[in-house]
Amino acid sequence: MTATQPGPVRNGKRPSVTDVARLAGVSVGTVSNVLNRPANVAPSTRAKVEAAIKELSFVRNASARQLRSGELNTVGAVVLDIANPFFTEMARGIEDRLAQDEYTLMLCSSDENPEREGRYLRLFEEHGVRGVIATPSEGSLDTLLAMRGRGIDVVLLDHTSPLPDLPSVAVDDVGGGALATEHLLAQGHTRLAFLNGPLTLRQCADRREGVLQTLAAHGLDPAEALVEIPLEALNADGGDEGMRRLLASAGPVPSAAFCVNDVTALGALRALRDLGVSVPGEMAVVGYDDVMFANMLATPLTSVRQPMYKMGWTAADMLLRRGAEGAAAEQVEFEPELVVRASSISG
Amino acid sequence: MTATQPGPVRNGKRPSVTDVARLAGVSVGTVSNVLNRPANVAPSTRAKVEAAIKELSFVRNASARQLRSGELNTVGAVVLDIANPFFTEMARGIEDRLAQDEYTLMLCSSDENPEREGRYLRLFEEHGVRGVIATPSEGSLDTLLAMRGRGIDVVLLDHTSPLPDLPSVAVDDVGGGALATEHLLAQGHTRLAFLNGPLTLRQCADRREGVLQTLAAHGLDPAEALVEIPLEALNADGGDEGMRRLLASAGPVPSAAFCVNDVTALGALRALRDLGVSVPGEMAVVGYDDVMFANMLATPLTSVRQPMYKMGWTAADMLLRRGAEGAAAEQVEFEPELVVRASSISG
DNA sequence: CAGACCGAGTGTAACGATTCACGCCCCCGG
DNA sequence: CCGGGGGCGTGAATCGTTACACTCGGTCTG
Fold first, then answer.
1. CATH code of the domain in which A220 resides
2. A76-123 confidence digits (pLDDT tens)
3. Which residue stretches of chain A are H helix?
């Protein structure tokens, strides 16, 4: 009992069905049957084969299997940032739905880097995944369309589809941006800051659009009423740094800030705290996503809620159903919901 | 220009090297050379082949490629809970290190479910991943050892290795548990609550061990000084519910609570707030991990910090280096660090 | 009793890319 | 003019699995 390796000693190679067949004294076809259609094999034979499998600790070679039979129960997903709870919550939704059908999720994070995103998409395709769920960044839409042209199911996540027959799950971000802005204006603020990411990201562009529309609807001139702060990174440090830049900027400082997501809002709040600016007294803050910790912060964060888990679940569901019954392409759009908390309430 | 599909019309099948070769008027061997050793191909030939590849929008079949050549630049990782920032931060570290060597990460979340974890591990092996990084749950260690026996590199993450030649990256959780307890005792608390997960999880068992050791060192009887609350789930809701149970329990209520991680501490704090129990006045709280939002909560959370990103990075680095130069198995252990904040400071 | 049928198992041709031992051609030096 | 390389390409063998057409006893049916 001093063996350090379980099972028989390997001779440097994985055993194959052939090895199993030889050991069990049957043909490879039978081994394959035991593996895939056990009901078609006599119990005694099956037992012999199973014994041989255990003996050799044989593990199916997925590459060969897939090469021959084409099918693969894997779905790839590319999200913008795996460290953002917004995306991990969606990932959970995807995974749970996929697990129901014995599918597996391959999750990758593009870090908003189109090149990295492209690399992952290519990898997925080379591996022959059944489908892809992606939160596309700028430019990758073409790649996705090309993949779809080659027969890979694609579902856009957190992005409304530009094409009628391309399924997507999204949230009305223009509406969400409007919701936040409307709320801030209702609180009496007349000059707002918008800490936003690159406009090449649809989410950022749309939320901005909502801001501008709302300003216009109230007869406000953006040049007067809006200070836009472009963020270096859509994480806490980016938000922190952006807020510092806002406070240091020339001209009258706004009395309210809308952050493009909760993680950056977290950073912004940190900067405000460190600089001794009171929230919401001197600066009201609104975030976006309503992630897990939003309501537990020093000043609970007003945020625009998105049904993250449900979005992920729905996207996976659409992907699976689409393949299964050739369902028509749906384009689901959820409505965002403003959750008002202390960070934006002056009274 | 009304084609809805980019590229030439597919006849229902992916083009293969053979198709490319035919179109380019060369042999399949040459196509393969263009793909893998472009320097060995004359520029004019290469151009022809590349044109054909574009024309057909050919995509390599990774299964066939790997079947023949064996190698695959993919590493699999299984973490306990993808929605916990502790794990996603580690995942980022892994991914970044892997990207340096053009490796790709396949990330899966076992939800502390051994069966699900086993499924993912088997899947990885069937796919022939180069190595596996895993935060093992109960029982899966055998599976991992078996995989290693079959030639797959394994690195344990957030788990000290039980075997000298099995590499691992971990944090001294006994020490971490002691740190937290020592701190709470130093604050004058004499009766502590410990909101913990299942002891089948090494992290939970070790931190508990640290708690008990420290209690003993101070001459305290656990039966008197410790109230253990088993958590249903290691997430915010679990922590919330656990704290409510604690407050509702019979006997003198402790004046301090140690939560096994920050996410559950978040939930516990939420329950305390909702029930109107002041922190740290009526109940001091300490968490574990020091995740991103710990210092931004209503009452900034005292926590035991772990170098998450670095842990992930190191694990990936060990995996890659091990294969590359047959380096000896290291077992890295990081030291946890107590970060004291308002949630546990009585003065 | 012939023929159909059945369950159980066999053997082999794919699947698509890579590899490798060889050809072929052309140029160069002796 | 011949031998020898080098540079470019060729094409068949191969990886491990699955699908499929097939064999082989034996039992049922009319």
1. 3.40.50.2300
2. 999 999 999 999 999 999 999 998 988 888 888 888 888 889 988 998
3. 17-24, 28-36, 43-56, 62-69, 85-100, 114-127, 140-149, 173-186, 202-217, 222-225, 236-248, 262-274, 308-325
